[in-house]
Amino acid sequence: MSDLPATTIKYVKHTFTKEEMDEMQKKLALKTAELRRKEEEKKAITSQFGSAITQLQTETLSLADSVNTGYEHRSTDCLIKYDWKKGMKDIVHPDTGEIIETLVITDDERQMKFPVKEKKKDKEKKKDDKK
């Protein structure tokens, strides 16, 4: 009868000792803190990627529109051609010569601007101030 095993492995309930509980509580606290940090890192990274993806989507759509239409709108220094007899002015595209807009000449534009001459006393005062 000595050939029979004296023990066997079974999956049974184990009640933890105070020392085991203390050790597990420390590990739990550390792992909980680590988990929170990782979740915060994930949120930050996800947010960064989300922003980058949104920016790329915006740029892609803008380029697609430009390719599809063949043009884009840009702020451009345009020429102003005055027709004093008609009281109108044309805003002209500098590259194409196309009239972009025709407007009425304003009263302010009709007023001539004269250079203001400084009085002799003002000139002398400025010279004295520089000294």
Task: Explain what the structure shows.
This protein is an alpha+beta fold and 131 residues long. It folds into two domains: 14-71; 74-131, no CATH class. The chain has three helices and three strands, in the order H-E-E-E-H-H. It has helices spanning 18-69, 107-110, 120-130; strands at residues 79-83, 88-92, 99-104. A three-stranded antiparallel β-sheet has the order 1-2-3, with no helix packed on it. Strand 1 (79-83) and strand 2 form a beta hairpin. The longest helix has 52 residues, at 18-69. The model has no long low-confidence stretch (mean pLDDT 89).
**For the report, how would you describe the main beta sheet?**
3 strands, antiparallel
Secondary-structure element order, N to C:
HEEEHH
Instruction: Characterize the quaternary organization of these chains.
Output: single chain
Number of domains: 2
Strand order of the largest sheet: 1-2-3
Number of strands: 3
Beta-strand residue fraction = 5-15%
**Secondary structural class:** alpha+beta
Indicate the radius of gyration in whole angstroms. 41 Å
Low-confidence stretches: none
Mean pLDDT: 89
- Helix amount, in percent? 40-55%
Quick one: overall form? elongated
Q: What is the count of helical runs?
A: 3
